[in-house]
């Protein structure tokens, strides 16, 4: 977490665990769930939160089916 000038805290999106665990963990698990037909609303929220403006960076051709929800 990083503290802003107004005293509020926001997630540090450059933090190693966010930068590695979301694209190489949650996105992979979300893809498997998608293939199995299982809804993952909470995973979707975390993925969108972790990559609010860079969701296209985690989308590669082999996981286009996973990333179409972003």
Question: How do the helices and strands line up, and which of them pair or pack?
Answer:
Layout: E1 2-3, E2 9-10, H1 16-36, H2 41-50, H3 64-67
Antiparallel strand pairs: 1-2
Helix pairs in contact: 1-2
Explain the overall architecture.
By secondary structure, the chain is mainly alpha-helical. It has one domain (2-67). The chain contains 3 helices and 2 strands. It has a two-stranded antiparallel sheet with strand order 1-2. 10% of the residues are buried.
Spatial sequence of strands, sheet with the most strands: 1-2
Distance between the termini: 24 Å
Q: Label the structural class.
A: mainly alpha
Please estimate the helix content.
Answer: 40-55%
Please tell me the total number of domains.
1
N-to-C SSE string, H for helix and E for strand: EEHHH
Mean pLDDT: 75
Helix run count? 3
Q: How many individual β-strands? A: 2
The proportion of strand residues reads 5-15%
Q: Which spans have pLDDT < 50 for at least 5 consecutive residues?
A: none
Computed CA radius of gyration, to the nearest angstrom = 13 Å
Largest sheet report? 2 strands, antiparallel
The gross shape turns out to be elongated
Short descriptors:
two-stranded antiparallel ribbon, 70 residues, elongated, 6% strand, 50% helix, mainly alpha
Please summarize what this structure is.
This protein is mainly alpha-helical and about 70 residues long.
């Amino acid at each position: 977490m990083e503290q802003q000038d107004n005293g509020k805290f926001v997630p540090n999106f450059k933090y190693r665990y966010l930068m590695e665990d979301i694209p190489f963990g949650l996105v992979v698990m979300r893809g498997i769930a998608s293939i199995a037909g299982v809804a993952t609303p909470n995973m979707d929220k975390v993925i969108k939160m972790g990559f609010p403006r860079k969701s296209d960076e985690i989308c590669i051709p082999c996981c286009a089916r996973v990333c179409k929800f972003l």
